[in-house]
Amino acid sequence: MAASSKKEETDLFDLLKEFVKNWKIMVPCIILAGIIGVFVAMWIRPVYKVDALLQIESKNNKSVGLMGGLPSLFASASPAETEIELIYSRQIIGEAVEKLRLQYTATPINKMDRLLHHEGRMELSQFEVPWKSIPKDEKRGPWIATAVDSSSFDLYDHNNNKILTGTVGQTYRVPYAGDTLIFSVFHMDATAGQKFKLNKLERLDAIAKFKKAFEVKEKSRKTGILEFSYQDIYPDRATKILNEIATSYLRQNVEQRNAEAQKTLEFLEKQLPDVKAQMDSSLLKFNTYRNKVGSIDIGAETQLILEKRNKLQQSLLDLQQKKQSAVRLFQPEHPTIKTLEDQESNLKRELASNYAATKKLPNTQQEVLKLTNEVDMSKHMYTTMLNNIQQLKLVSAGEVGSVRIIDFAEEVSSPIKPKKSMIVCVALFIGLLFGTLIISIKSKFNNGVRDANFIERETGYSVYAKVPKGNPNGTKGTRPLAVVEPDDVAIESLRALRSSLEFSMEDESKSIIGVSGLIPGVGKSFISVNLAALFAGLGKRVLLIDADLRKGRLHKEFGIKRDKGLSQILLHTATPAEVIRKTEVPNLEVMQCGNVPSNPSELLGSRHYAAMIEELKQQYDLIIIDTPPIMLVTDAALACRVVSEIVMVIEYNRHSIDAIKDGMKQLLKGNNDVHASLVINKYEHGHSDGYGYKYGKY
């Protein structure tokens, strides 16, 4: 576990080190992402959210029906889920969309105003364009309204033709495309020059758009408390819309609960004249008969029969009403229905017995009994109907529905989005990820080796030194870095290289070192100059030769004017004594490259070059030859055929192992007796490599 924890810490440290190393990639990515995040946060329009609370009540209202009651007529116990689906219906939302004219949109199009949150506002009450009258092949762009001042505007059609100049609150009907254009603005808050793109949505599209910003949910399960919420870029409009939805739902809920009562009331009021006419007809028949036969004295027996008949008929009528109400609630096989049917049969049998008893009376009394019964029944029907009508009117007037608005929507001052800090943080994080991705891709394609042990194991050549980044020119002014700043970490590494080379050149005959690199820019001249200065510091006479006849630069390092040099010696136009220059470093002399010849490879491969080196070898303790890059030209291999020690400079994390092998193979071609070694330049110390401070200053 300890090893695993240590590995994780090392991986994290390596990751942080990689970030620091590639700060030129990470910092721009993070800054760019931060700028984009700020822009996005400013670009998104603020959105406000308002909410309202409604309670769904469960109650069973009872009212009297046609002949004594309408049980369960207004019972309502809808669960919250059902009510939520009803609220989302087109009946509720569509009414609000049409009433608030949400199918018309006027979108600000000034980009800078949007970025600065200074956009204007325009709301339409009518925008009817006769599109059918416009040719279908005609290109249609957006209709634009431009504010002239705070209360007037110009209207332009899809071809940018000015249609009219109008004012807020006025409805305009103008001829257009052989038909009539209707346009009206009921609210505008804009400055002169601000433009709006106009559009009219189809009813279903407007409802669908509304549903995206509208939400209904139950606050807690089985509480019956519904929370309405709506989001809009204008808080006052959001409040108005949500309150309209709540009141519309409440109104339609009450209307739905009153619908059946209203239908029954209409039926009763329609039947009332017929019942009254029937009552008047019965009275007329009864009075006519009495006038015809004169005064008639009804006996006690007849009176009892009449009262019993009236009572049985009223009971039968009431029972039939109860049966009709029960049929609405139960199946025909239900015990309640069966009981009512049995009671109805009993009453009918008793009524039949009453009619049989009437047959025994005299004819005059039978007729009087019949007419009196008809009058009493018609009066009872008429009176009952009047009572039921009054009761239904009272119920309808007092019905409040099953919905109660607890909290109306109120205008808010703080938007719910965009969350600017969150957007910027996410953008910075994305920038960090993007930078990491770039670094990972870079590392993926960068197959440069970094491990010295791996290089030694794969190539078979020793790495004599790992030189950290130093002065890229190798000198400060005209003096090598090894002289100016001898405690620099790069110079300390070169001292290790010097020591290693001394051990490998114990034989005095081996006193020529060739320094080369794979490609330009790896720092071989830096190594050559400072290595020569370090050897000179030991009291040895050192000659530094610039053998890069094409792009030699050692003369610049020491402030020497490019004049005659090695190329002129090989062309037999100068002698070594004429071209060798002393430097400010004791015991160190320099032979510059000279003017660029036309055939550098032939000159370096000539016998005269080898003879010159052999002659100079007798005059100096050590000769260091700075050669061209081996991967570009063959000059380096030709220049190194006279050396006894080859030092190839490679750059840290830049070259593949195959390139190193190939470069060393070319340097040693035909000269296998030469001892070769490697130097890693621009080395970056890890957590456990070397020291990060200057020797002598710890």
Keywords:
alpha/beta, Rossmann fold, eight-stranded mixed beta sheet, five-stranded antiparallel beta sheet, 48% helix, 20% strand, disordered C terminus
CATH topology category name of the domain at 452-683: Rossmann fold
The SS-based structural class is alpha/beta
Binned strand content:
15-25%
Globular, elongated, flat, extended or rod-shaped: what is the shape? elongated
Terminus-to-terminus distance: 35 Å
Q: Which CATH class of the domain at 452-683 applies here?
A: Alpha Beta
CATH architecture descriptor text of the domain at 452-683: 3-Layer(aba) Sandwich
Task: Tally the helices.
Answer: 22
Low-confidence stretches: 59-78, 687-698
Question: Overall mean pLDDT score?
Answer: 81
**Approximate helicity band:** 40-55%
CATH superfamily of the domain at 452-683: P-loop containing nucleotide triphosphate hydrolases
In total, the number of strands is: 24
Spatial strand sequence of the major β-sheet? 15-24-23-18-22-19-21-20
Spatial extent as radius of gyration: 54 Å
Q: How many strands, what sense, and barrel or not for the largest sheet?
A: 8 strands, mixed
Structure description:
The protein has 698 residues and is an alpha/beta fold. Among the domains are: 51-256, no CATH class; 452-683, P-loop containing nucleotide triphosphate hydrolases (Rossmann fold, 3-Layer(aba) Sandwich), CATH 3.40.50.300. It contains 22 helices and 24 strands. The strands form six sheets. It has an eight-stranded mixed sheet with strand order 15-24-23-18-22-19-21-20, sandwiched between helices. The chain has a five-stranded antiparallel sheet with strand order 4-11-6-7-8, with no helix packed on it. Helix 2 (23-43) packs antiparallel against helix 11 (420-445) and helix 14 (489-504) crosses helix 15 (524-536). The protein is elongated. It starts with a helix and ends in a 15-residue tail after the last strand. 28% of the residues are buried. Residues 59-78 and 687-698 have low confidence and may be disordered.
